[in-house]
Amino acid sequence: xRAVKYALLPLALTFLIFFFVKILQRxxxxxxxxxxxxxxxxxxxxxxxxxxEYLRFNAAYLLAxxxxxxxxxxxxxxxxxxxxLTLVTAGLLILIYGFVFVVLQLEDCALLIGSLGLLLILALxxxxxxxxxxxxxxxxxxxxxxxxDASAQPAx
Length: 156
Description:
Elements: H1 2-5, H2 8-24, H3 31-52, H4 57-80, H5 83-105, H6 110-128
Helix pairs in contact: 2-3, 2-5, 3-4, 4-5, 5-6
């Protein structure tokens, strides 16, 4: 039951990874690809529930997380087509599911550890997004000089 309370966390953080890959690496990710990854993440909870009927929670969580992280990693390898980007994504997914597992195990201080973890994640997001021009994707940011536009030249 406690795992379901944290269901939004892996979903949101995984989509945040995809968002930053799209923006910072200038990769195109189709909405169908987002949907397929989202379905894989939702199936994690179905697997966790099904395996939990036969195994102890820790084993069920490890198997379900391993299956979903492996599936998503194999899929992003085809989408990103860059080994480094795929490995970084896999590592981040492992960290996300590991973080949720630790929070689930810490009954007495789960709120404190979860809040501190989310604070660190927010700090990382703020750091990574500090140079993004949120008003116009692809427009020059304050750190990049503007590109000359041939259509803005006066006609002769």
